[in-house]
Specification:
Keywords: 4Fe-4S, Iron, Iron-sulfur, Metal-binding. This is NADH-quinone oxidoreductase subunit NuoF. The protein is an alpha/beta fold. The protein has 26 helices and 19 strands. The chain is 40% helix and 14% strand. A hairpin with a 5-residue loop joins strand 13 and strand 14. The chain is globular. The mean pLDDT is 93.
Amino acid sequence: MNKIKSYKELISLNETLKPLMGMRNNTNFQYRENDLKEILVCGGTGCHSAQSDEIIENLKTSIKNNNLLDKVKVSLTGCFGFCAKGPIVKIFPDNVFYVNVSPNDAEEIISEHILKGNIIDRLLFEEPTIKQKVKKHDDMSFYKKQLRIALRNCGVINPEDINEYIAENGYIALGKALSSMSNEDVINVIKKSGLRGRGGAGFPTGLKWESTLNASSHEKYVICNADEGDPGAFMDRSVLEGDPHSVLEAMIINGYAIGSNNGYIYIRAEYPLAIHRLKVAINQAREFGFLGKDILGTGFNFDIELKYGAGAFVCGEATALIHSIEGNRGEPRMKTVSSSKKGLWSKPTCVNNVETYANIPAIMLNGSKWYSSIGTEKSKGTKVFALGGKINNVGLVEVPMGTTLREIIFEIGGGIPNGKKFKAVQTGGPSGGCIPSKFLDTPIDFDSLNAIGSMMGSGGMLVLDETDCMVNIAKFFLEFTVEESCGKCTPCRIGNKRLHEILTKITEGKGCEQDLYDLKELAETIKDTSLCGLGKTSPNPVLSTMKYFMNEYEDHVIYKKCSSGSCQALLNYFITDKCIGCTKCSKICPADAINGKVKEKHVIDNTKCLKCGACLDSCKFNAIVKK
């Protein structure tokens, strides 16, 4: 491929390549006899680890064996978002969505669906609430309320084929910016769009770009923060795996807007597939002339380098990340001077995360008015959430700001499995807060979540049901924070350790009322005095659970009981009248704590019981309870 030398050449190539995507984007596509049928197979990390590569190979083999090479095309794509049901396979022109596909299903997909036109019922998704099979993903409750902007190309294009990205108007926003807009024009579009950073802090992106542009220096830097460390969060990884060119394009636009020629993507080394796709995309972008010198014949130079993080959570904080790129220990600094004035190598630096960048080309193409019409007054656009925990539909969800928690959990997420009751939802990752059911109708945006003691964070959303103990949940997140604290400031290094010790004492039934007072006072002190965002937000799980679930803390401390049945030290097991005397529990008990004769009700000696739960798991008659 020769380098594209002008915006005009790019437009011409875009028009030539558009038919590549006609079938995938148009639900009313008129299929003709000579058109290729298409099979898309998810190649995100989740499906990749569940043998999606083997599915692709088996599909290709079956296509060859059935002499269909000129009739059917198999393509790799990025993540469809419905990760718990992967591997996902999608068939065009029928627009049929198959879930939980295995390599052994490949031959049947070709012989039944492709050759005979028979939809394979057992591979269709079944709606958990109505127990009905659904053929098209557009009809699934998981997708109905979603609006995909950052994820617009994930599950649509082959992330390793730049032609498909260009066919989807890729790099057109860059061409438009370089050929007809000044630096200020670009920044004004981003400012007017209302886009706020999706990494957690929610700082207005346009203002950050403007501040870096106005900083006086002949050398400036662009950084993409791809150090996604929240447990359970994978939205940035999915964007990089499914649509890496959108991030590259946005970074180049960012470089043009602020007057920078150098960009870095700081990505954790635990993301090998994302790193591979980025390397492929960077090489392709250089080959086509979107990176390097004289981009699109405009005289603008920009290139991007990958930097690998070692998996330290604190390196998601901008100043710690900058220190790590410089070769120093990844520790934060006091933000007396912003990175836009003095960042990498003490030069003005613009740091945005992956999801923020993924929105930029769409904003440049569709305009600030379009983007600002989506969302709430102070939080524009959409947000991607990693929805997990006690929920039927686990996966990535992108919704307009202002969508309520109830809509996400019960309509998109399909509600709580096994008839259990909703108890709380934890948003914002390990530094977020737990939100009780009375706030389910809260419209989600940066400010409303902060107002109820939680935060947007990077977008983790963990649903909890009636069997979750909120004291134990707070301890769980503190364990992560204690492990990941860089140790530079005392409140975070020592304070969080003490918080965790008090929580452990309470969950073991050794707490006293003074512990509750100490817990709250110490959490507030850590929040007020820590150096960086990690320390300042780390007590959120403790403070929010104490605010909304104080009765559970009091149960543990005063009555020495855990009402949800999570804290082993506070539990006792009992055998009810349902026992028929089958003797299975007594045979499996490792402590010989269960006594009874055949066909007679058994009894547990709680002084001997190890509380391992083996008896509960083994009983087929639901005769054993814990309380």
